[in-house]
UniProtKB/TrEMBL annotation:
GO molecular function: lipase activity
InterPro entries: AB_hydrolase_fold, LDAH
GO terms (BP aspect): lipid storage
Species of the source: Conoideocrella luteorostrata
One Pfam family, short name: LIDHydrolase
Keywords: Hydrolase, Lipid droplet
Lineage, top ranks: Eukaryota, Fungi, Dikarya, Ascomycota, Pezizomycotina
Entry protein name: Lipid droplet-associated hydrolase
Family: Belongs to the AB hydrolase superfamily. LDAH family.
């Protein structure tokens, strides 16, 4: 099972800065789901003419790959949302140009863009929040922007899928044994059968269908995903962050040399089963009011029908990669003022 994706920039010559786009998965937290998306983004970035070279790195969330941890048990429980935030924060803080390109110098990136999908977006925002509260934890880490894709950052239990999941948890024995029941049902099918159904009935791409089937038949993957899902519903209520977090990037604030630039760029689905429409709209309105006072968050709501699980199909992976590339170009343009 793929554990990480590393896609360095091919255009280092002539670049005045080197930045890292650090990707955080959704749930299930397997980087393999995002191969097509990150491939497309890398290809688009290679066409850019800016002065910043962007490397791309993403890895599995903790607990989703059997090879990366000891079997779960009473003394080794799955990771929850808070543990994932800690783990990803430690990992991104350890990223160095030298670690990736094999040089001997311990050189930090000029700046880092955190990019997250679904619960990965929440993890990114929380990493920003913790870093702003105590930057001494990672003094050489320069978090500049966040790209939040289909973000599940507020009142998750009010979404359609959140309501269904909580109802299922309320049924007798389900809270404790839901993973056991799921594993029992999955044991009736071979990995090949699951892959065929996922590809031909659910419409996943061949590669993401294989990733899904391997995860469903893994030792601990389903348990980690369900544990994480319960933690998400028990953690993500009304957005708790201060307006300061959402204001313009400190390194790209309004000056006489150029326009203000958002710290966060967000892309919402038009109809997202993990995001209640009224929760999304209320959040957007709060950010709009804050923007009138001098803050700013770039928010786009899809006008089409790109699904929450955009990464399971090649076409929608490319569509979201193109949106992200537009954000990068906007950042590069602002830096040239």
């Amino acid at each position: 099972m793929l554990s990480s994706i590393w896609k360095p920039s091919e255009q280092l010559r002539g670049s005045s800065q080197r930045a890292l786009i650090y990707f955080v998965c959704g749930n299930p937290g397997l980087i393999g789901f995002y191969v097509d998306f990150l491939d497309a983004l890398r290809n688009l970035l290679n066409t850019s003419q800016g002065t910043t070279a962007y490397d791309i790195y993403g890895r599995n969330l903790l607990g989703f790959c059997d090879d990366e941890h000891e079997p779960f048990g009473p003394d080794n429980t799955p990771w929850d949302v808070h543990a994932e935030v800690d783990g990803m924060y430690e990992d991104v803080a350890a990223r160095r140009v030298s670690v990736e390109d094999g040089t001997g110098d311990d050189k930090p990136y000029d700046f880092v863009i955190l990019m997250g999908h679904s619960i990965g977006a929440y993890i990114c925002v929380e990493m920003f929040h913790r870093h702003m509260q105590d930057p001494s934890r990672a003094q050489r880490l320069n978090l500049r922007h966040g790209f939040l894709l289909f973000p599940t950052i507020a009142s998750l239990a009010l979404s359609r899928s959140g309501v269904r999941f909580n109802y299922m948890r309320s049924l007798p024995t389900m809270e404790t044994h839901i993973a056991t029941y799921a594993k029992g049902i999955l044991s009736l099918f071979s990995q090949g059968t699951l892959q065929w159904v996922i590809e031909n009935v659910m419409g996943f791409s061949p590669y993401t269908a294989s990733v899904t089937a391997e995860w469903l038949k893994s030792r601990d993957g389903v348990l980690q995903a369900l544990h994480m899902g319960k933690s998400e519903l028990d953690t993500i209520f009304e957005d708790k962050w201060e307006d300061e977090l959402w204001e313009v990037s400190a390194s790209a604030s309004a000056t006489d040399k150029g326009p203000a630039l958002s710290r966060f760029f967000m892309f919402y689905g038009r109809e997202d089963h993990w995001v209640a429409n009224h929760v999304r709209d209320e959040f957007i309105e709060r950010r709009r009011r804050a923007g009138e006072k001098g803050g700013g968050t770039s928010i786009t709501v899809d006008e089409g029908n790109i699904p929450h699980a955009f990464c399971t199909k090649e076409l929608t992976s490319w569509m979201i990669a193109r949106r992200v590339h537009e954000w990068v170009e906007e950042i590069d343009k602002a830096s040239q003022w």
